[in-house]
Amino acid sequence: KDSGRTALKIETMGRDVASISSETPVLDRLRAAYNVMTGVRKCAELSIRPVDKFVHPQAAYNNSFVSDPFIPATHSLANNISSILVSALFDFAPFAFPQFAELPTNEKSNLVRGSFEPIHVVESMSRAVALFPNDNTVFMSYTMTLSQDSVDYFFSDCTLDVDIDEAKRVLYHNLKRMAECCKSTTKRVNPSEEELLALLALAFWNNDTATSNDSLNRAAYSVRAAIMRDLHVYYSACGLKNYATRIGELFSLLVFYEKMTSDVVEDIELFRLLQVYEDKKYY
User: Fold this and answer.
1) Is residue 115 within 8 Å of residue 89, measured between CB atoms?
2) Which Pfam families does this UniProt record tie to the protein (predicted)?
3) Nearest to 163 by CA among 235, 13, 271, 41
4) What CATH number did the domain enclosing 67 receive?
5) pTM metric for this prediction
6) What's the pLDDT tens digit per position in 186-205?
7) ∠98-101-102 over CA atoms, to 5°?
8) For residues 102-114, average pLDDT
9) CA distance 131 to 133
10) Looking at the predicted structure, is the pLDDT value of residue 127 above 80?
11) Which range of residues forms the domain containing residue 120?
């Protein structure tokens, strides 16, 4: 695949309004829902930027944003971006999954709470591979990046009484480990846009969503089965007749992302122990 074209497709996936197709209805809803989610995230993140980097949210939809869309993340901004993604997921889910609307309110919250980190890992890493394939840059949010080169800048606005040098050392080490491992694995599988949409859905309805609630379990099973049907149609349209191996690669990538999600959660807890992150809850 042409990596340049893949990057363009991934970055425009959130801007283009999806056409709903009867052949792959789940993937089409996911594409449209992703459009909604990225619109919410862009506008919210642009509005919290510091004055010297402020971009009017309306610029998210014109060329002035495309020319310089990303800024390095900072400590103070990082304390706000989690709540933005959580809010956006509450817009994403009912648009993408009709089953979500039928769930009780507490189960909806449980789903979002359980999918927040997995969704972030899948979405941010796929975009990082497409847009920054040859370095250790990752996405902290939809419009903010982090790399080993920007670690000092990340802590430049930290006002907490913490061991900054130790925090920098830990973050620098973790970035190198995660970026190299994640990017090499993602490049090897090289998922298409449709496969990334499927991964987002499977990350949302991940294995941790299994509960004693029958309605939630039925909804999760229904979504997963529908995704597999759409992938069957997609692979057939691509002329891939024996796609069992490809499905295996895709699920192996999902398992890898789940492992990386666990690592991210552990890293966050470590930073909480270092008192770098405040113990905030967004849901």
Assistant:
1) yes
2) Hormone_recep (PF00104)
3) 271
4) 1.10.565.10
5) 0.84
6) 999 999 999 999 999 999 99
7) 100
8) 88
9) 6
10) yes
11) 3-273
